[in-house]
Amino acid sequence: MAPSRADRTAQKRWTTDYDTLQRHKLFRDPPSNRTAYPSLAEAIKPHVDSFNSIFAQDGQLHHALNEIGSKAFLDGDPSLADEVSEPARRNRLEVRVKEVFLDKSKVPPGNKLNGNRDILPVECRERHVTYKGRFQGRLAYRVNNGEWKETVREFGFIPIMLRSNRCHLEGLSPKDLVNRREETEELGGYFVVNGIEKLIRMLIVNRRNFPMAIVRPSFENRGATYTKYGMQIRSVRPDQTSQTNVLHYLSDGNVTFRFSWRKNEYLVPVVMVLKALVETNDREIYEGIVGPAGTKGLEGKQFVTDRVELLLRTYQAYNLYNMAQTRAFLGSKFRIVLNIPDDMSDEDAGTDFMRKIVLPHLGCCDVTEANDTDKFRMLLFMIRKLHALVEGECSVDNPDAVSSQEVLLPGSLFGMIIKERIEEWMLSIGASLRDWGRSNRYPSFTSKEFERDFLTKIIRKTNENIGQALDYFLATGNLVSPTGLDLQQVSGYTVVAEKINFYRFISHFRMVHRGSFFAELKTTTVRKLLPESWGFLCPVHTPDGSPCGLLNHLSHKCKVATESADVSSIPQLIAQLGVVGSSAATLDESVVVQLDGRILGFCTPKQAKVIGDTLRYWKVEGSHNVPVELEVGFIPASNGGQYPGVYMFSSPARMIRPVKYLPLDKQDFVGSFEQPFMSIACTEPEIASGDSTHVEYDPTNILSIVANQTPYSDFNQSPRNMYQCLSVDHEVLTFTGWKALSAIQAADHVMTMDLRTGIQQWNAVQATTRLAHGGPLYRLKSGGMDAVCDESHRWHLNTKDRPTTYTAYTTQQMLDSHLVAHSSPSGKNMGQWDRKCGTTTHLNHKIPTVGHNGNAMYLWPDCSWLPRSFVRDEACNLDWCRFIGLVMGDGGINHITNAQGQEYHYIQIHQRAGKPAAMADIEDLLKRLAAKLPGFVINPPCVSGVKQKHTWTVNHRDMYYFFLPMIRGPQAYDPLDDAMCRTYQAPHYQALSRSDNEPILPVPAGWKTGNWWYLRRWIYYSWLYLLARDQARAIIKGIAVADGEWSLSLKARSDTGGSGHGGGGAKRIKLSMDSVQSEQLAVPLINRGVVRVFNSSIPLMHDMSVLGLLADTRVNVGVNHKKGEWMPSIGSNANATGWRISFAFTDSELAVRAPKPEPYDNPRHDGFVYCLTVPNGNFLARRTVQYSDNDKIQEVLDAAQKPFYTGNCQMGKQTMGTPGTALKYRTDNKSYRLQTGQTPVVRPPLYNEYGLDNFPNGTNAVVAVISYTGYDMDDAMILNKSAHERGFGHGTIYKTKKIDLSEENKQNRGRSKQVTHMFGFAPGDQPKAYVRNTLDDDGLAAVGMKVKDGDIIAASHTVSWDAVAGEYVNRDAVTHYHKYKEPEEAFVEEIKLIGNDAGSNEPCQALSIRFRLPRSPVIGDKFASRHGQKGVCSQKWPAINMPFSESGMQPDVIINPHAFPSRMTIGMLIESMAGKSGALHGLAQDSTPFKFKDKEGETAVEYFGHQLKRAGYNYHGNEPMYSGITGEEFAADIYIGVVYYQRLRHMVNDKFQVRTTGPVTPLTGQPIKGRAKGGGIRVGEMERDALLAHGTAFLLQDRLMNCSDYTKAWICKRCGSFLSTQPSVGPYSRRREGGRVRCKRCSRPANSVDARSECWEDRKGERWFGGDDVTLVAVPGVLKYLDVELAAMGVRLKFRVAP
Asked: What is the model's pLDDT at position 1127?
């Protein structure tokens, strides 16, 4: 929550100065009254404050217990309840939990310890136990409304968050914290569970109490009438639990109310909910949705009016006329679901339903009539907004934008689980009551027997240990919940608060996660960085890999509200500002005013802006009791934008941040919802007069705490920001059709190709860029493609020898001949380019133009009239697709109503008698469909016209309506309008055609309907993009049969023998449809050759090009007619152009020869080039049709639309640092410590503000940028051996091992606490000398002792209790030893004896041993600068051989110059200059981002260059240096400076893996994986190539066979099979006969003439002859496994065996 004005006292502002004396003073003498680093405490405040609010007065649990209320149970036998007469009333027991208490952590009452009984967190860490407090509750119960009786119940122990109001560290000063063995700046905010620090991470959830308009295609799968439109609201109760309500818009105009309860979904008509809330009538509901009668604009709301009338009319079927009847109806349906007591009436049960389920944020406890009215008004508003969404008046509310999100606080989630466990425990009392009643013959609740047994037997049998569930939740992060808590995930809620270094530790408290549910989604939409996140989420601080974009970090100034603001005065103020109670019909007249999801009223859009501005002024001013934390979101009216209104929020869990309010020059807190609609200047020079209302305090406020520590981060550029640019006259294939490149938006799904597999994929566009371009353009044109781009555009090209491997080349590289030349088999260079048929293409490289369709067979789920068995049969499915092609090619539809009123719905198929083969094919297809499809009735064909056109008609109503939108075409598209034809874009018309009340364009005078529709037909449905390859080919086959021609490739050798560039190995023969044989037509698919289809519909032409791509064909669109010519296909002089679409079937060929870029003066160039950022690195594009400039004649100049795939745009927390100063009292399983940490010379002011000098993370190193030896290639770095000996990068790892003797008692483990073992030597046992070398007399290792793997570190012996002697005695005189089991040598740092808190005198049963592992840098360890320049130490170079400067300075680190150009980490170069000048002048340099400007006199180079110059050094940071080996001066000056270098925790000693032989996988015989198991490392394809390149081929045999799965196996040399060999059996024994193996496949049954000595028997006793040509070979074991696997699939491998 934002600090109040009283708390904003002026703190000392930290600067970049070293402040050494002040820091030392703070460390040696910590403050006793306040923290020195308030910003650090503020960073973790959301965690601590949210936990405090759980148990606060009127806090979360107080509201939770009120919401739970009391649970009622009835006595008697439940099975006889229906037979009991009305007078025999059952007794009623009510139970409730009045209050709960959580005590601070103390020793148990059984411990008679005198003095301080507090248990501190440090003790729990050292004892490896949970820091927890005693949890109790006051249970009250009564019978038959009698007097309440109370008792206090023990609910177990609950983990306590450190520094919370239940922790002993609450409010302690740094000095007091040190006295309690904590850090001086112990932050808290985490739990100690089993000695491990665990953190509940903050989750991103939907914004509470705000109705969000959503569009989800998955909604359509819920049922036949469901549409993708919905309205969702996450309604949050005062106890922070939530209930999500969803409204679904149905295609018949109805609206359904959906909710989930205990993981089950339920649906209720929304009118039923409305009528159950208040006493209302249809008129009130009608006017609440549409608007009062007589209001302005009502006549234009016909869409809404029709649907509301339908909504009310369909509800009349329920015959429910008032609120009581409706509630009783709902109560009867949901009483079992909600666990309603049997004695409660249906109406009361319905009332309880409305309280718990419907918008509970407006009333969930003691609900009044006013609360129900608020719910009623909010539901009406949601219906109204839903209709606006469907009608297109408003846009979708983006659930992935931070404006639609809030944070689920850790304390809130913790309290929600406690509430749920309490309620589940109360419900379990009912089960216990039933068990008790069953065993005691169901006594009455008023009996003495019940009074006696209720607490002692009934309650005690329930599981009262609520704390156990919380313990499990924190330990595992798994949520075991019967309700799901309205969350989408069940795991991943907690993480270990690792203290690898302080940066990583503090980042845990600032991270927010979208949830593990979203990590499994295939879409990348949820991971996008949206502009709405500015100032709330850090744009750069997100990890690589699977959590990228899902795990974000809060900006360092972003706060999370943890309690509700006082807004009691807001409703009165709103009323004074002119808000009225009812709304007008249109958004132009009235918009809504809401406060925390409650409608306060309505006002005009103009007045809404006044209200927003006035409230903002008052809240910043601090007047009228308007809290400064109030979020005032004013959404202005717009055309199709977000739904307008004034939405105010004061609830917790909101993200808010400080900015300066310009009118008052004071601090204002803005929320994520209101920010997108505000004008906030980034810097003061950017303030626009009359527009800007706010200005940022500092541009760095957008970065997280850790991201702010990177020096000069604004100078670093990502290497992936490469612009790949096409000109404007291109189209891109999206999921809704071809779309102009300039119109593509982020989140549009475009077709891409997986360059590894060649499979087509749909990916969301991540970003779009438009760049001004005045330079040259280049055209790549050939028979296979056509594109216009700039010189930096990137193309993915393959080569002839590697057709599946694509390499990126820019246009400029193609022009500069950087491509790989083609070589002949003899090695002769054949050159680069080949000119033929007027185009120049490359001899070796190709560009992909089509990808393989990876879709599964589409099963037509929307066509319910197609039987499931029909669509699942592949042959039937393809027949249906061919039928679609026939209708779309030259078919039609007709709707006739005869005189008797009977309706006929015809589908017509036409064909001329001159094509007998095509006619026969059509006849066969229709007969097959008639046999398979019910209701598919074929009328005999009628013949008309001179050319004897045959017309088949099929009468089928459902098919008619299936083809209707395709035949009649886009509703607003006029093919006679030249402008529409020139600018046709399918997505535009698909958006328009969704409106039901837009009239279809009438048929012009003189036109036949069929001819008019012929020019407009298209394939509108979205299933077009879901078709499998064979389905697309079947549709093309159908269209081609109707009207098309084929050309088949026939293999025939040419006279030239196939030599030369012509490739004359095949001839192309063009066939008309008349000459195609019937057997060729009978095959369902076309798999070779070229098919040409003719059409006059521009929409269908675009859709057929998509169809061709899905059929794995190269598509080429050409002109067949000009405007005004006779069109035989439609029989008129149409104002249209005929199109010829060619499909070239290329099952394996994905690419065409790459054309040579030629300079091109593009007449359609608009001065810009356009770039898309797509995940796969490419997208499918094509040039748009080029028309004549003459408006009178629509002449097509260039229609060759040829698609092609083109390219697109593309370490601090791992550092070994200082985790803390109280390391002595920590027991982390593994912790790191840097021995020689320093304060950086270059750092921002925030470095001191967060006290990071208390936790140094690296060392200032002199870094030279030079390629000095062969050891610094790539990212490798050379370390000065002298610097290493002085301690550079020295570190230590601490590991803790716990030895628990109670676990040695295997028989009674977990069931008994009896002591069976003790530490020490057994009395009477004489340990050997090697044991006493490491163990002291107490049986424990000596502190400081060096131990290695296998050394003994502790001794113990068995004991039993001797009651006579009163002590534990050993009876076997045997000592048991505990060994050190790590491969690396370590030193025993300390040993802690772990006692218990029971206060008994039992002997010690557990101890904790801490080991210290020194880790000085070795070759292979990883280092990095703060700019991500990470590299491996490749060599420790002697100081005498290191280069040196004129002043004798030697670098500590040498890095390669090539590290900079690829990563563009210019900030590191600036840091080098700054560090160097700071070291020379004794200054701490300020590295705040955005400090310098790109203006003369204000650059970083000038600022630090002058400092270097004044110190007598080179202005640019370069220096002459001399070779340490020869003493000669280098030919070039060397860039050298001071950079803060960090040692990463990735060390070679933790990762090296060595194996000769070892454990193997039983199935394959190959080594298992895993370093800890002694497994092997996978030698992949790249590793194999590297070994071959080094000439070490035999190493492959040694690694991959001899030391892997070396196997000796018998093989038959004749048939080449492993599987047919088997050992022979002797005639008198079943044992193997001397190892003789025969091949059964190559032998034959023996007969009487075969020599007995050459015969053999198998295990069945059958005699065989021959098969002895076998031999023993050494092969990899996995080869035999592969042979068996393939044999199971019917594939036989044959091996040739030769010497």
From this structure: 43
**Contact by Cβ (8 Å): 1118, 1140:** yes
Q: Are residues 238 and 353 in the same domain?
A: yes
Residues 6+ apart with CB under 8 A from 460: none
Amino acid identity at 44: I
Give the model confidence (pLDDT) of 1604-1661 as tens digits.
Answer: 899 999 999 999 999 999 888 765 555 544 558 999 999 999 998 888 888 888 888 8
Residues facing 183 on adjacent strands: none
% of the chain with per-residue pLDDT over 70 = 91
Q: Cα dihedral angle (1357, 1363, 1367, 1371), rounded to 10 degrees?
A: -30
Residue 973 scores a pLDDT above 90: no
Determine contact, residues 1435/1269, Cβ cutoff 8 Å: yes
**Both 587 and 599 in a single domain?**
yes
Handedness of CA 420, 425, 427, 431 (dihedral sign): positive
Torsion of CA 410, 412, 418, 423, to 10 degrees: -150
- Do residues 914 and 832 share a domain? no
Chain centroid, CA 1116 distance in Å: 38
Q: Residues 833-837: what's their mean pLDDT?
A: 79
Give the separation between CA 409 and CA 203, rounded to whole angstroms: 7
- What phi and psi values does residue 1357 have, to the nearest 5 degrees? -145, 160
Contacts of 573 (CB under 8 A, 6+ apart): 615, 618, 624, 626
Angle at 1011 between CA 1005 and CA 1016, to 5 degrees: 100
The rounded distance, in Å, linking the Cα atoms of 443 and 441 is 6
Contact between 614 and 527 (Cβ < 8 Å)? no
Please check whether residues 1312 and 1246 belong to one and the same domain.
no
pLDDT exceeds cutoff 70 at 1069: no
For 1116, residues 6+ apart whose C-beta sits below 8 A from its C-beta are 1141, 1142, 1144, 1200, 1201, 1202
Give the pLDDT of residue 782: 85
Q: Burial, 1552: exposed, middle or buried (Cβ in 10 Å; 0-12, 13-18, 19+)? A: exposed
Digit-coded pLDDT (tens) for 640-680: 899 999 999 999 999 999 999 999 999 999 999 999 999 99
Written as six digits, the tokens of 1056 are 């030239």
Pick from 641-650, 813-822, 1588-1597 the range whose average pLDDT is largest: 641-650
Is the domain of 1004 the same as that of 1022?
A: yes
- Domain shared by 1200 and 1160, yes or no: yes
Alpha-carbon distance 75 to 97, whole Å?
Answer: 21
1331-1361 residue pLDDT tens: 988 899 999 999 999 999 999 999 999 999 9
Q: Look at residue 129 in the predicted model and tell me its pLDDT.
A: 93
Domain count, the chain: 9
pLDDT at residue 598 is higher than 70: yes
The chain-wide mean pLDDT, for the chain, equals 86
The model's pLDDT over 727-769, given as tens digits with 9 standing for 90+, comes to: 888 899 888 888 888 888 877 888 888 887 888 888 888 777 7
903 and 878, same domain (yes or no)? yes
CA angle in degrees (0–180, nearest 5) for 270-272-275: 110
Secondary structure of residue 147 in the 3-state scheme: coil
Q: Three-state SS for 736?
A: coil
Pull the structure tokens for residue 1638: 């025969």
The span from the CA of 949 to the CA of 1129, in Å, is 12
pLDDT at residue 1148 in the model: 54
Confidence category of residue 83, pLDDT binned at 50, 70, 90: low
For the domain that residue 216 is a member of, what is the CATH number? 3.90.1110.10
CA atoms within 13 A on the CB side of 381: 31
Domain membership of residue 45 as a residue range: 39-76+91-107+114-203+410-509
State both tokens at 200.
Answer: 């509940």
Whats the size of the chain, residue-wise? Answer: 1699
Instruction: For residues 1231 and 502, give the distance between their C-alpha atoms in angstroms, rounded to a whole number.
Output: 12
CA distance 263 to 479: 14
